[in-house]
Design goal:
The longest helix has 16 residues. A five-stranded mixed beta sheet has the order 1-2-3-4-5. 39% of the residues lie in helices and 22% in strands. With 173 residues, the protein is α+β, with helices and mostly antiparallel strands. InterPro entries: Acyl_CoA_acyltransferase (IPR016181), Diverse_Substrate_AcTransf (IPR051016), GNAT_dom (IPR000182). This is GNAT family N-acetyltransferase. Keywords: Acyltransferase, Coiled coil, Transferase.
């Protein structure tokens, strides 16, 4: 029955995607999608975010992170969460795409591309010179998707991260 419903949903997608800024009412859907993404990335156990945290970070007095959602038949089926960066060399802001996720049963219909295109429009309209993100090396479908849009890996850069005990130790040294 589930496969039949998914098949019907796939066939019914023929309208352009509805991309919009997220609202506080979208927070439960965004958290659900974050959990789906984490599960796909084999890291569901690492999700600590709560609806309250997302609501405050996205819609509080001074938000530093932003989100767009994509709707299908009035239901949120994907999201892009992002924040501003700054290039000292270019002297301009950029967008860092923290997460982009579209439910598996509606992939292949342009929803991910529409979300990413919206971010590129924002960057272009505001004079930002880049949109960047990280992707897991084993995620070949995502890599293929990004490269099909013209994105290229930045192989000369390696990501470093301080977290947990190492962060605490560094902060107190």
């Amino acid at each position: 029955m589930r496969a039949l419903a998914a098949s019907r949903r796939r066939r019914s997608i023929n309208l352009p995607p509805v991309i919009r800024y997220a609202t506080p009412d979208d927070v439960p859907s965004i958290l659900r999608l974050i959990r789906e993404l984490a599960s796909y990335e084999r890291a569901l156990h690492e999700v600590k975010a709560t609806e309250e945290q997302l609501r405050e970070r996205l819609f509080g007095d001074d938000p530093k992170v932003f989100a767009h959602v994509v709707e299908h038949d009035g239901r949120v089926v994907g999201f892009a969460m992002w924040f501003l960066t700054f290039s000292t060399w270019n002297g301009t802001h950029g967008i860092y795409l923290e997460d982009l996720f579209v439910e598996p049963d509606v992939r292949g219909h342009g929803y991910g591309k529409a979300l990413l295109t919206e971010l590129t429009r924002i960057a272009d309209d505001r004079g930002y010179e880049r949109v960047e993100w990280a992707v897991l090396t084993w995620n070949k479908p995502a890599i293929g998707f990004y490269e099909s849009l013209g994105a290229r890996p930045q192989d000369e850069w390696m990501v470093y991260r301080l977290t947990g005990d190492a962060l605490t130790k560094a902060a107190r040294s």
